[in-house]
Amino acid sequence: MKSLLVLSLLCVSTLTGCATARFYPVQGPLSSRTPPPVYVAKLSDGFSSGNLSVVLDGGEVCKGRWAQVPRPNSSNAAATAAAAAPDNLSAEWDTVYGTGFYVANVLGTRLYARAVLTGNRGTTLNVELYKPDKVENTTIGAIKGVAKDDKGNIYKVAF
Length: 159
Prior knowledge:
Strand order of the largest sheet: 1-2-3-4-5-6-7-8
Number of strands: 8
Radius of gyration: 15 Å
Strand content: 35-45%
Distance between the termini: 24 Å
Structural class: alpha+beta
Shape: globular
Number of domains: 1
Number of helices: 4
Helix content: 10-25%
């Protein structure tokens, strides 16, 4: 069964051509600017993956593919979570949404996607998105996310 996140993104993609998100710096050098910058991202394509792009300072365009994160089996969820730890943004989820958020809400959910974006000026941006399992409709606004760049910035991603 395809995840609701994927279906949500597909529905929005089909109706409008793409979904739009905003990246808000919450920690790092960009968050200390007054006012802090807000970057616009676009998601498009796919059933279980698609394209994601965001334009940063100076017109740097970061592009990549988002893909659904496989759910761990309940029988080996702890082992899978431990094995996946270097790849995930669990600390960033907790920084943006509060201590314990990643474990309580994101880990193991069926509505979880990840992307690595590469900028045309060398920036690397890791992004994770999730939609709560409890949300039964396809409201794109229910999707939450975090991102981290290689310059020490952490972002809240909102739709």
